[in-house]
Structures are given as structure tokens and as C-alpha cells.
Amino acid sequence: MAKGKESKPHIGIFGRRNYGKSSLINSLAGQEIAIVSDYAGTTTDPVKKTMEITGVGPVILIDTAGIDDTGELGKKRVGKSRSMLKQIDFGILVITGNQFDNEELKLAEDFAEHNIPYLIVHNKSDIQKLSTETQDKLKTRLGKTALEFSAINNEGREELIRLIRNQMPESAYKSRNLLGDLLTYGDLVLLITPIDIEAPEGRMILPQVQAIRDILDNDCTAVVVKEREVDSLMRKLSPEPALAVTDSQVFLKASASVPAHIPLTSFSIMLARYKGDFDNYLKGTPHLSRLKDGDRLLILESCTHHVSCDDIGRVKIPRWISNFTGKKLEYDVVNGLNDLPRDIHDYAMVIQCGGCVLTQKQIVGRLKPAVDAGIPVTNYGMAIAYIHGIYDRAVAPFTGQQTDSLDYL
User: Fold this and answer.
1) What does DSSP say about strands 118-123 and 146-148: parallel, antiparallel, or unpaired?
2) Which structural domains are found in the chain, ordered by start?
3) pLDDT digit string (tens) for 73-123?
4) Confidence (pTM)
5) Over the stretch 311-347, which tens digit does the pLDDT of each residue have?
6) In 258-291, which positions are buried (b, 16+ CB within 10 angstroms) versus exposed (e)?
7) How many CB atoms sit inside 10 A of residue 195's CB?
8) Apex 321 CA angle, 320 and 325, nearest 5
9) Cα dihedral 28→30→33→38 (10° resolution)
10) CB of 270 within 8 A of CB of 179?
11) pLDDT for 179
12) Contact indicator for 86, 4 with CB cutoff of 8 Å
């Protein structure tokens, strides 16, 4: 399946085999988008489909394999289904025939562990209605009630959509400012964007486009320039920029060219604050100074892309960190939301890219095992700023504090 390339809210549908999860999705979407069969286990891999919910906007429904699948292959299917917990913003637990047992309770516990709001739907109510006993059990064990639903006659469809709309966290679908809270009406923002071998042909990368749109949405002016033209532009630019944002790869050049009194950050750090685990990045980044010989670092890319000879995540960052620390380090690179090649405890540090194609939930979920294990995490831009000695200046626009950028060296 696609590796998290949608920034829309993700809704995961979970339950046992043959409980009508696919039928429920078809009913919600108003079209047949998931395969329906009387045979248990028809859905083998998670399947995504987009639909529109009034008041929320476009959402992605994820149909998963049964949580009670059996056999070696079945266990793998269940594993894939449970891996969706790292990606979803909202969950629907489907039960039927008044059956609620350890499988469902374990899934409810997983929702709680991942801070996922969820609903319980009693499907196939046209065959058997929800009993008072089952409702009492749900209230006692989970503090929840179940919604009667029938995919055959669409009973409960409108109520389910209403509940999703009311209980979906606003943070999953409401746009936030990338830079707007740092700006006032009419400000000028300088964007420094290298055009090099890694720049996509004929276009700009997504974070740059997003920054331009956010600046315009906040009634400000964006001036876009390559790093080689910054010095000459600064001599004649008026008014001077209220903020400068640079590609992390040219942080040193940007820091030298942009006067110290003008706030400076990077597109990657902008994304780290917008949708990353920013507080843990701030805590984890200084660990770069404490790496030891033999330490292994995990580099997390968000997307699959052509790897150039000077790739930022696979070549430049490892080279810069190794030069900065003077240590013999090992690196693993994982793209998308693929499984890790090692146990998370094998890593001394985790470095996440900006995550422009992921949701905040996916990034935080991706980093959660490391955070839970006490392993320091950081972000591409913050790591680059740190090892180049301009970390404090680079994060100051978002923390409100700026100290001597060489304090940690």
C-alpha cells in the first residue's frame, strides 16, 4: 500500500474477520470501494479510500484485515493491521453478534496507548440487535457505548458520520500556520532555495511551495532567491525581511549572508515545528555531541525518491555527523513507513526528515518507539543546524530564545 503520502485525516476500521468492515466502508463512502464477501479473511492487506465528510473535509478510510486471523500468514496480516495504529487519527472498532472479548479489549487498549479517539460500531444489526448486556459490558470496561449499524440498509450511517465529525480531533484536519504566527500584516519573508542536483526538474519542493502559500495567506510578501544571490539582494532589499527561511543544506551560507538581527530558520525546522515531535527534537538534538564510536544512527525518510550521489539523508547528513563527532558511526536509512531492519534499542539516535508527505500523527507514531525507549530523536534541519554551529539561531524563531550558538560545541 502507499506509504503515507496523504496528509488528510486517516480513519482505521478494525474488527474480526467477516464482521462487515468492508461493507461498512462501502456504506460510508456510498460506493463499492472495498471487496465484500461471505468468506472470512477476504481483506488481506490494509486498503485506503478517500471520502468527504462535511465539516471535516476529505478523509482516508483504511480497511484492515481481521484482528483474529490465524496461521503464519494470518499473523502477518494482523501485524500489518496493527501497524496502521501508527498512522491513523481516528479508529472504528467493529463488533457484531454482541461479541466483545479479549481481541476487542486488546484493540481498545492499543487505541488508548496510541492516543487514538475511537468509536465502537455494532454491525449487522439487521440480523441481531445490540443487547443490554453488551452495552453494559462496554460501559463498564471502556466507558463507551456502541452504535447500531447495518451496512445492508444503511441504518446508523448518518449518525456514524455525525459522531466521526464531532469526535475527530480538530488537529487532524484543521490547517495551522507554518509561519503565520511569526508574522504581521505586510511583512516580507526571504526564502533561500538552492537549485542543485537534488532540486526537482521544473518545479520547487513541497515545503517551499507550502511556505509561499502560507506567507500569502497571511497577507505577507515572499521573496524567493538562490543562495548565490542573497548577498547582492540584501544590499538593496527594502524593507528588510522580518524572517528568512533557508534550505538546510545551505545553512552556513544563509547564516553568513542574513544579518544576525533577522530571524533565520529552515524549511525542515519549519516542518518540525508544524507537524513533527518538536519538543522531543529540542531535547534530543544536543545528543549529537555525545555520540560514541560504534553508535548506530537511524535515518527516517518520508518518501521514496531517486537517490543522488549527494543525497541529503543518505550521504550528506552521515558525512557531516561523522566529521562533526570524529567518531566511527553506523547508519541505517528507512524510507516511507517501512519496518525497521533492527530493534529500536540498537540505535543511539533517530533522525527524521521534514515529513512533508506525512501527517503529524504518522511522524509522531513513527518516532514513538524511540521516544518510549528513551532514544534521542531529532530532525534533518535541526541536526544540520547543530553540527554547523547555528542551532540556537535556527530554532529561536519558534522557541523565542537565542543564546550563543557555540555554547554546545
Assistant:
1) parallel
2) 10-172 (3.40.50.300), 180-270 (3.40.50.11420), 277-387 (3.40.50.11410)
3) 888 888 888 888 888 999 999 999 999 999 899 999 999 988 899 999 999
4) 0.70
5) 888 999 999 999 999 999 999 999 877 889 999 999 9
6) beeeebbbbbbbbbbbbbbbbebbbebbebbeeb
7) 12
8) 120
9) 70
10) yes
11) 93
12) no
- Nearest CA to 289 out of 376, 379, 399, 372 is that of 376
Q: End-to-end CA distance of the chain, in Å? A: 43
pLDDT at 175: 64
- Indicate the residue type of 73: L
pLDDT digit string, tens, across residues 242-264: 999 999 989 999 999 999 999 99
SS (H, E, C) the chain: CCCCCCCCCEEEEEECCCCCHHHHHHHHHCCCCCCCCCCCCCCCCCEEEEEEECCCEEEEEEECCCCCCCHHHHHHHHHHHHHHHHCCCEEEEEEECCCCCHHHHHHHHHHHHCCCCEEEEEECCCCCCCCHHHHHHHHHHHCCCEEECECCCCECHHHHHHHHHHHCCHHHCCCCCCCHHHCCCCCEEEEECCCCCCCCCCCCCHHHHHHHHHHHHCCCEEEEECHHHHHHHHHHCCCCCCEEEECHHHHHHHHHHCCCCCCEEEHHHHHHHHHCCHHHHHHHHHHHHHCCCCCEEEEECCCCCCCCCCCHHHHHHHHHHHHHHCCCCEEEEECCCCCCCCCHHHCCEEEECCCCCCCHHHHHHHHHHHHHCCCCEEEHHHHHHHHCCCHHHHHHHHHCCCCCCCCCC
pLDDT higher than 50, residue 40: no
> What tens digit of pLDDT does each residue of 18-36 get?
899 988 988 888 754 443 3
Q: Give the span between the Cα atoms of 177 and 107, in whole angstroms.
A: 34
